[in-house]
Amino acid sequence: MAAKLVFNIGIKEGSGIIIDRYIVCNVPMRTYYIARPLSTEAELVDKETETADNAAVPATASHWGNSATVKLDAGTTSARNIIFYMYENRRGVKNSITEQKNKSRTVAPTRATYLYVGGTVNGVEVIWRIFLGANNTSNFNIKRNCSYTYNITLNDAVTADTRVDIDFANTINLNEAGTANCYLASKTCAWHKFKATVRGNGTKTFAEISPTGSELPANAAISPASAELVWETGKHNGIIQHVSLTDDGYVLFKTGDMDEGNAVIAVKDGSGKVLWSWHIWKTSFDLAGLNANHVQTYVTRPRNVGEHYVPTARSLAMMDRDFGAASNVPSQDDKVAQLMAYIINLVVKIRFLLLKDGNT
Length: 360
Known about the structure:
Layout: E1 2-11, E2 17-25, E3 27-28, E4 64-65, E5 70-76, E6 79-87, E7 89-93, E8 114-121, E9 124-131, E10 139-142, E11 147-154, E12 167-168, E13 172-173, E14 182-185, E15 191-195, E16 226-232, E17 240-245, E18 250-255, E19 261-268, E20 274-282, H1 290-293, E21 295-299, E22 303-305, E23 308-310, E24 313-317, H2 333-356
Parallel strand pairs: 1-11, 13-15, 14-20
Antiparallel strand pairs: 1-6, 2-5, 2-8, 3-4, 7-10, 8-9, 9-12, 15-18, 16-19, 17-18, 19-20, 21-24, 22-23
């Protein structure tokens, strides 16, 4: 009367994934004593979408439950040969699903059984949901007296396998105040996202800086097919650890463990042509405390009042470092002077060598 499920869970090497728990979700709490086969039961592939003959009815909450939460040892990087027995759950076939990455909770039938795996990716809370069935795409049926083995490799990349449905807890939406061409990220090892279908802040793009060579009107839409890291300062993965394009048109990226630095992320079309790029400024600069901690009084340009010029003082919110700065340590005037003297001396020596060789 039962189905046997075997889960072999592995983890991509170098992904920083640690799993700490798992649950089998949407498990029927009852079944028929006598089998109620489909008309296609004898065939190897289910051709019908069928739910009515299951003893557990999707709309009846008391017919369903989850397994207990199974805690894994601290620091677990793999858990193999997990065996689970359950009543059959024939939730049907969706022939429209042709790729493994599309077998996710957005299209799964109601009460389809899935394996929930919880853990972290470099300290970030993550949940994977792996929907079960007779294949990795369209089938959601778990039948009695059948054994199902699932060889699963967990990956921190969003687009790697969306049969593994990843929830990125506390993803920071950088577009809450609107779109821009530069985004400030202040948290290390945190997930961020921004809209990839808008060039910068959506204003007109002049021909001189247009990727097409001609002027682009305001809010000219783009349809990227991929996103990638162009460059970053410092060590590899120090500023940006992961970049991908989500199905709903956002660039999703995770910051590295460096507190300060810069990076550029670009989106491309299907042919690999760059459509637009964004500057990511990684800094510990506190935007939330901007008004409280970074307000300075400046005397603005005098304005003409009758025949007299009257200086007007205003309090302006000013950042306490240069845009794109890789450190929050103030510059020392003597160090700047020493650097300039070194550069000038170097230029003089180069020019002397050129003249010595007879060059002008």
